Amino acid sequence: MDLAKTRDKKNQSGNEERFIVFKVSDAEFGADIKQIKEVIQPAPISKVPRTPDFVEGVMDLRGTVIPIINLRKRFNYPQKDKDENTRVLIVELPEDIIGFIADMVLEIIRINRADFREPPRMISGIDAEYIKTIAKSGERLVIILELSKILTESEKKLLRSNS
């Protein structure tokens, strides 16, 4: 998926933000398009010993070794095999590049800031710290993730020492 063209288009109203929407299990999540370096099909992943269960391992992306996180495991969803829809979102964080496995990438959408909702105080299934906002897009709600908070600082340090 070529995100460069999508990223370069001007925001017409100034009140909209753009998100890539993807599925993990039956839930729809979104991530700020500016954090997504690219979306790829899964490549061979090498297991790394003594890493948390949700770390699938590491992958060579054109000479750069990056950790791969299984979002199903991270969010405690039932596991399923990868299929033709499975994608890896390559995410550029301030100090790291990380791959997140999603079941499917759906689309890139614009959401007006007026359609952002505060996350409920108690959310079952995933920790509220991962959630930046809940966005209403048409008739559906998309959980917008704060990708930099999916891993704790200690987990990031562990991954840096193993990759």
Structure in words:
The longest helix has 10 residues, at 153-162. The protein contains 3 helices and 11 strands, in the order αβββββαββββββα. It is mostly beta strands. The chain has a single domain (3-162), classed as CheA-289, Domain 4 (OB fold (Dihydrolipoamide Acetyltransferase, E2P), Beta Barrel). Strand 1 (16-24) and strand 2 form a beta hairpin. The strands form 2 sheets. Strands 8-1-2-11-10-9 form a 6-stranded mixed sheet, with no helix packed on it. A 5-stranded mixed sheet has the order 3-6-7-5-4.
What key attributes describe this structure?
163 residues, mainly beta, OB fold (Dihydrolipoamide Acetyltransferase, E2P), six-stranded mixed beta sheet, five-stranded mixed beta sheet, 12% helix, globular
Structural class: mainly beta
CATH homologous superfamily identity: CheA-289, Domain 4
Q: Assign an overall shape.
A: globular
Uncertain regions spanning at least 5 consecutive residues:
4-11
Please list the strands of the largest sheet in the order they lie side by side: 8-1-2-11-10-9
The number of helical runs is 3
CATH class: Mainly Beta
The helical percent reads: 10-25%
Distance between the termini: 26 Å
Number of E-state strands: 11
Largest sheet: 6 strands, mixed
Number of domains: 1
Overall pLDDT level: 84
Q: So, CATH architecture?
A: Beta Barrel
